[in-house]
Amino acid sequence: MNAAEPARCMRLTVDAEPARLADIRRFVDEVGTVAALRSERLFDLKVAVSEACANAVEHSGGNHAPLHICAWFHSDRLIFEISDSGDFRLPGAERRGQAGTRGLGLPLMAALMDELRIQKTPGGGTSVSLCVRLT
Amino acid sequence: MNAAEPARCMRLTVDAEPARLADIRRFVDEVGTVAALRSERLFDLKVAVSEACANAVEHSGGNHAPLHICAWFHSDRLIFEISDSGDFRLPGAERRGQAGTRGLGLPLMAALMDELRIQKTPGGGTSVSLCVRLT
Amino acid sequence: MQVDSTRLLDAPLIEVAGEIDHGNASLLTAAFESTIDEGADIVLLDLSDVTYLDSGGISAILAAVRHLRDRGWLGAINPNANVRRLLEIVGLSVDNGFRVFADRTEAEKALGESSES
Amino acid sequence: MQVDSTRLLDAPLIEVAGEIDHGNASLLTAAFESTIDEGADIVLLDLSDVTYLDSGGISAILAAVRHLRDRGWLGAINPNANVRRLLEIVGLSVDNGFRVFADRTEAEKALGESSES
Ligand SMILES: Nc1ncnc2c1ncn2[C@@H]1O[C@H](COP(=O)(O)OP(=O)(O)O)[C@@H](O)[C@H]1O
Ligand SMILES: Nc1ncnc2c1ncn2[C@@H]1O[C@H](COP(=O)(O)OP(=O)(O)O)[C@@H](O)[C@H]1O
């Protein structure tokens, strides 16, 4: 993010559970309306945010650990940041066995978004940023 | 990147071919020596850069398209940027069939690096940034 | 999300309505598995009322396509523009175990051609 | 990279030296395939002289482990600290079709135990 440009933000904190993915999409709808996103781009963003949150839910480990979602409004782009408290890990052998039906999340996020960023939070945890250009 | 901090950089441009991966690793060795990286972190960086370059080679499409690699030296971190001229795409059905032996590259980059960033270059092309904290 | 199993001509037809995501895609997987276990070579999936789909649902579709590919196909009916675009991005539009139909009439025509051959 | 095929006791032993990457991993895949085609249940891979390994090589190892898992295992001998760490990161250290040995003596001991049982 550019330090010269303070950004407005909208936040959502939910329990890290698959059942909350629908609530998260309603939040993306709200943000998309505020940012006046085209419906096509809103759909892409909903999918990318869902993928990031589904991963966070799966890997955040602790039951009901909170999942933090923040939407940053910049003049030229919208950034969703999804933070969880689990370390980034590689899929285990069981997962790898599910031939060709897993491992779509990261490629899908990268293909749908203008930018995908995965950061290790110092002190543990993973933060995923999804960026959509508004121009 | 922080605008207030101009960064020094070292560049390498090679043909996008698997046979050049060894040259690319020698370049990472050079950069790592300049940045005084621990040998463990240098190994991680070599693997992550190789994965990004192998993907770029595989997806840049055109024969012998140039692959641009740039190492940015910041006071607190080292960033490798790998740019190719192909669009980010999802694996095809043939690839997905190779049960559990593909799709390691992106998760490995994310797991090994402090930050992984995948950007669409406006006008076509993909740029992958790999960040190692120096502190 | 709601999943109903019915038939179109001789083929099993799965009708889904609502949003398919990681939280509920197992219902779709179960519907596919029971039709495939019954020996179906061709399975239809009506997506007319599906407003959202993510890799949870795509994985379920990919697994069904993988089972059917060597002996038949999975036919998706009337996905909305966004869902169709997503199916293209993940490569299903060039998978020979997967077809997309604009409506049930088109699907019926393809069923007829498949049973002739 | 150099790949040699020899034996340790009754087991095929693949010795690799140098850097295994996406550009040359097919040589390793070929070596695995020929030992597995010959019916080996246990395959050894001496990594003592391997200085570098990326997902090209890891994929070759994963494919071999997948083939051997139900009837035996793949044993990696003396990977350097970085290579060993990478094998752990990709989850091979908890895969029951994969073992790591500090040296050939340790590997021989495990071969002896496997043939007893
Ligand atoms: N938030 C996260 N925390 C920890 N590991 C993650 C996270 N997101 C992704 N990963 C790792 O990356 C792998 C690939 O993710 P993805 O492409 O979404 O596919 P899938 O979740 O189907 O395996 C996951 O299996 C997991 O090991
Ligand atoms: N530079 C790139 N350009 C286009 N597509 C890419 C690029 N890097 C990765 N991809 C896509 O992301 C997918 C996953 O990449 P990766 O995790 O490295 O696994 P693999 O290359 O084994 O499939 C690739 O199959 C490809 O479809």
The succession of helices and strands of chain C, N to C, reads EEHEHEHEH
Radius of gyration of chain A (CA) equals 15 Å
Q: According to CATH, what is the topology of chain A?
A: Heat Shock Protein 90
How many DSSP H or I helices of chain C? 4
Going across the biggest sheet of chain A, name each strand in turn: 1-2-3-5-4
Name the overall outline of chain A.
globular
| CATH C-level category of chain C | Alpha Beta
Instruction: Using the alpha-carbon principal axes, give the shape of chain C.
Output: globular
Number of strands of chain A: 5
What brief labels describe this structure?
heterotetramer, A: Heat Shock Protein 90, 4 helices, globular, C: alpha/beta, Transcription Regulator spoIIAA, five-stranded mixed beta sheet, 5 strands, binds adenosine-5'-diphosphate
Report on the structure:
- The complex is a heterotetramer, with 2 copies of chain A (135 residues) and 2 copies of chain C (117 residues).
- In chain A, strands 1-2-3-5-4 form a 5-stranded antiparallel β-sheet, covered by helices on one side.
- Chain A contains 4 helices and 5 strands.
- In chain C, strands 1-2-3-4-5 form a 5-stranded mixed β-sheet, with helices on both faces.
- In chain C, helix 1 links the parallel strand 2 and strand 3.
- In chain C, helix 1 runs parallel beside helix 2.
- Chains A and B meet through helix 3, helix 4 and strand 4 of A and helix 3, helix 4 and strand 4 of B.
- Strand 4 of chain A pairs antiparallel with strand 4 of chain B, so a sheet runs across the interface.
Give a quick rundown of the structure.
The complex is a heterotetramer, with two copies of chain A (135 residues) and two copies of chain C (117 residues). Chain A has helices at residues 21-34, 39-59, 93-97, 105-112, and strands at residues 8-15, 66-73, 77-84, 115-120, 126-133. Chain A is an alpha+beta fold and 135 residues long.
